[in-house]
Each structure stands twice: as C-alpha cells, then as structure tokens.
Design a protein that fits this description.
With 184 residues, the chain is of the alpha+beta class. It is 30% helix and 32% strand.
C-alpha cells in the first residue's frame, strides 16, 4: 500500500454530477479486463457476481467489503461490512476496452464506466461515475478510491492495502475538498 495516497490518485469532479478516477496499471489490457468481467477476480477488489457479456445484459454485484482487508472493521464502517447484493444493467460492453453499467443506490440510478487503453506495457484505467447527486458523489468517491487501490495493489503483486484505514484517510480528504467546493 502507498503510505500516503498521491494527489493524482484522487477522483476529479467533472461538474456537479460526475467523478472520474485514473490509474496506470500493469498490463496487458486483457489481464486488467479480466479483473472487470470475471466474477472471482472482480470479487478480489470490488464485488463478485455473474455478468452477461452484452449491452442490455445484467451484472450482479455481491459486495463483501469486510473480506477486502485483514484489519477488523471499525465501528464507523460496520454498516458497510455486511453482504450487499445488486443487479445492474450493462449499458456498454466493448471488450477489452469499455464496460459500463447502471449503479442503483443512494439518491437514484447513476452510471459507472470503465475505459481501458494500453500505454506501453501499462494500462490506463479511467473510471467515470456519472449522474450522481452531490451527496452520492461524495459518498462513492472514497469507496471508489479505496477499491481502485486494492485493484492496483493486486495487479502489482502486493498484498491488499488496509482497506478501512485507507477509507477513513481518503474520506476525510474528499469531505474537505467538498466543503471547499460548496457554493456561496
């Protein structure tokens, strides 16, 4: 795990309803793609679940965040420690470059898009989460940040980062950034 998240690792707000993350991951692109579409591999960093590989198909997301870290779940995150299941609709499926799907929760239905592009022996991953309320944007930013840290660590061949400690650290940064962006 990186001792202190780099500024470049933080999501960037593109307008009031979009947050985007960029990571440069070890390739090849087909390997990174498998961590998006294969249930077992996706379950190591985000959520397992079946995926119908086509636009209009479903992607099941079974979140088990407590399994993503060896550290005990702090009291403040107990509500995130259970098993949560969702069934979303795939809106783009362009192997091995683009996967997009709906995201139900919070204040409505939003959309998550993963875009992959080779950069030498690395792969640029752009994750864009759009159609978010301001409250949801703040809520998902810390989560995406930490899940992407887990993915990067796995692809780099390192152990999983301390999920809950990192989440607490980055949530404070996102909350502070949000306060400075408040209108008025």
């Amino acid at each position: 795990m990186k001792p202190n998240p780099a500024a470049a690792d933080f999501g960037v707000n593109f307008g009031p309803d979009v947050v985007r993350f960029e990571r440069l991951l070890p390739g090849p692109i087909e390997r990174v793609w498998q961590y998006l579409v294969d249930s077992d591999k996706r379950g190591l960093w985000l959520a397992s679940g079946a995926l119908e590989p086509r636009v209009g198909g479903t992607i099941e997301l079974r979140f088990e965040n407590a399994r993503l870290s060896s550290e005990p779940v702090p009291e403040r995150y107990k509500r995130h420690a259970g098993v949560f299941e969702g069934r979303e609709r795939i809106t783009r499926f362009e192997p091995p470059r683009v996967l997009a799907f709906t995201w139900t929760g919070g204040e409505g239905v939003s959309e998550v898009t993963f875009e992959l592009a080779p950069v030498g022996d690395r792969v640029r991953l752009l994750l864009t989460h759009s159609r978010l309320s301001r409250v949801d944007r703040l809520d998902v930013s810390g989560g995406w940040h930490v899940h992407l840290e887990v993915l990067e660590s796995l692809l780099e061949g390192h152990g999983r980062p301390a999920f809950w400690s990192l989440l607490a650290q980055v949530e404070e940064v996102y909350a502070q950034r949000d306060r400075t962006e408040e209108p008025g």
